[in-house]
Write a structure and sequence with these properties.
This protein is of the alpha/beta class and 295 residues long. Helices cover 34% and strands 21% of the residues.
């Protein structure tokens, strides 16, 4: 197993240095892809980290572009596996041995990805005597904390840069599942990544405060635009994948009601759906540079 890792930066804070140390000992090389729009004050410290190869993308080119570049660099450098990490994620260093042993001792010739659970979604991750070697076969998972078989990756069309952000990971999973009889995605449900999706906020209903994941309006734009685009443009196998309950369009729309800026959110969702139907993809800022100035 020849393993590298990549992390995508976007205006990070200094905590990313500590986060990197949770997975740096596990890999031979770390590709740092910089999507930042602002100057990083501690950039020299990142560049000086042993094993790091720093790559500036000269502005925000999106998560899909960054992951695509990292995959190409790792494969060119002779690595057959790539661990992808978000800048705010911490990897459970001491539990990596369970994944490594699984790959060494099992036939993984049809496995495209090895995933772990994440904070807020994991069950019994800290219970004594929990079986961390347990595995499940799943349909899709988030990018952060996932180890991708690069040989399998390059048998697909890879990450779709037009998506920019959101659905990038699920789009790749759909492509894996659509190959022949389908490549497998293996989850270690009792190994937990420290990672949070969105910001936790609360929706008041009568006398109750209901927690939910809150996102800026522009994230809703990408969520809905990319979902509609993928349903419209993917091949039949991938379109069928996006009909599954986990991809429930209306569920996401109903959750948008809980956002404090829900009127702005609905307007930008409508714009995203229209852009998808028109085939207008890529960066929101480039497509609609004056959008928020008009509000």
């Amino acid at each position: 197993m020849k393993l590298a890792a990549c992390v995508v930066l976007y205006n990070p804070n200094v905590s990313v240095l500590d986060n990197i140390q949770t997975y740096l000992p596990l890999v031979e090389k770390l590709y740092v892809l910089d999507n930042s729009a602002l100057q990083i004050d501690f950039l020299d410290k990142i560049k000086k980290v042993k094993k790091v190869k720093y790559v500036s993308l000269n502005g925000n080119k999106g998560i899909a572009k960054a992951l695509k570049v990292a995959s190409e660099l790792a494969y060119k450098d002779g690595f057959n596996y790539l661990l992808s990490m978000d800048q705010d994620s911490k990897y459970p260093t001491e539990d990596f041995c369970y994944i490594e042993n699984y790959i060494k001792n099992n036939d993984t010739s049809d496995v495209a990805q090895f995933c772990i659970n994440y904070t807020g979604n994991a069950i019994k991750q800290y219970v004594d005597n929990v079986d961390k070697s347990k595995t499940l076969l799943i349909n899709a998972h988030i990018t952060s904390g996932t180890i991708t078989n690069l040989t399998k990756y390059f048998q697909t069309e890879g990450y779709d840069e037009k998506l920019f952000i959101d659905w990038v990971d699920y789009d790749l999973c759909a492509k894996f599942k659509a190959k022949g009889e389908g490549f497998k995605i293996v989850l270690f449900p009792n190994i937990c990544l420290q990672h949070t999706l969105g910001k936790t906020d609360y929706f008041k209903f009568l006398f109750f405060k209901i927690p939910f994941r809150s996102y800026p309006p522009v994230r809703h734009y990408y969520m809905f635009r990319n979902y509609v685009y993928l349903r419209k443009n993917q091949n039949k196998e991938c379109r069928d994948f996006f009909k599954s309950p986990i991809m429930n369009f209306w569920g996401k729309f109903c959750r948008s009601i809980t956002e404090k800026q829900h009127i702005k959110v609905w307007k930008i969702i409508n714009l995203g759906i229209k852009d998808a139907k028109r085939g207008k993809m890529g960066s929101f800022e480039e497509l609609h540079p004056d959008y928020f100035k008009k509000l």
